[in-house]
Amino acid sequence: MNTSLFKGTGIAIITPFDKNQQVDYNSLEKLIDYWIDGKVEFLVVMGTTGESVVLDKKEKKQVFDFVTARVAGRVPVVLGIGGNNTKEIIAQLHEFDLNKAAGILSVSPYYNKPSQEGIYQHYKTFAKECPLPVILYNVPGRTGSNVLPETTLRLACDVENIIGVKEASGNMEQIMNIINHRPEGFVVLSGDDAITLPLMAAGADGVISVVANAYPFEFSEMVRLAAKDNFIEARKYHYLLLNVIQHLFVEGNPAGIKAVMHQLGLCENSLRLPLTPVSDTLYKKIASTLIIK
């Protein structure tokens, strides 16, 4: 199975809303071109950063169809489908035209805190019903449980169409264990912008990024340079963006990145409840670290 499509920089794209919290398709259209012109390798739609949990089924399908139509094959599109009810997320596969997607990003089950065996069986069952490559998504800070390296590697070896993992545990040793023992072709992607560079040095294949929503060229160029072992030049981009990155998650994602993008004139600073825009204090701090092109 060709996994090269999922290397480099993917963006966990935002869903822009207008001032009335309706999906802002005019802004989304411009953003898609902005991201692709920024030379990112792929886009991820319906992820955490896209506020998928506050979109209804109809809106999810409309956003997915709009994104894939506007992308028009210029870059691969990965669709986020995940949850804590295995049967229900398998049913979700039939709600989208999967011919338009290159792969599925699926978050580990949250809230009900399954055992490692439960996580393994969940993904194995889901992948069996999924006609596309599946990328695991481990984000313990949101799910309340950690997918241990042994479970990730077991899935990587046992299930043919589980082809990679987005690792957002923040645990460098854990992620390096996966890199060190993974089967050939299994893709390891950083889920944390701030540690993408050191993970690339350790052998990771790329990232699914938040900050690249605002700075697609700068972040994807850093990843490309790192992939070529040119860490002297890659470090310049890393430290250029680090101050911005450190403010993105202080009051939650995607509130931070939407504040950045609003300041850059890319979209409204609008989120749906229970999420709210960042505080005035943080908004000003973000403005002080803004990179003006």
Topology:
Elements: E1 8-12, H1 25-37, E2 42-45, H2 57-71, E3 77-80, H3 86-92, E4 103-107, H4 116-129, E5 134-138, H5 140-143, H6 149-158, E6 162-167, H7 172-181, E7 187-190, H8 196-201, E8 206-209, H9 216-227, H10 231-248, H11 255-263, H12 280-288
Parallel strand pairs: 1-2, 1-8, 2-3, 3-4, 4-5, 5-6, 6-7, 7-8
Helix pairs in contact: 1-2, 3-4, 4-6, 6-7, 9-10
> What topology, given as strand order, has the largest sheet?
1-2-3-4-5-6-7-8
The CATH superfamily is known as Aldolase class I
Highest CATH level, the class = Alpha Beta
The main sheet comes to:
8 strands, parallel, barrel
Secondary-structure element series: EHEHEHEHEHHEHEHEHHHH
Let me know the average pLDDT.
Answer: 96
Strands, total number: 8
How much beta, percentage-wise? 5-15%
Q: Radius of gyration, rounded?
A: 18 Å
What's the assembly state of these chains? single chain
Describe the structure in your own words.
This protein has helices at 25-37, 57-71, 86-92, 116-129, 140-143, 149-158, 172-181, 196-201, 216-227, 231-248, 255-263, 280-288, and strands at residues 8-12, 42-45, 77-80, 103-107, 134-138, 162-167, 187-190, 206-209. The chain is of the alpha/beta class and 293 residues long. An 8-stranded parallel β-barrel has the order 1-2-3-4-5-6-7-8, surrounded by 5 helices. The radius of gyration is 18 Å and the shape is globular.
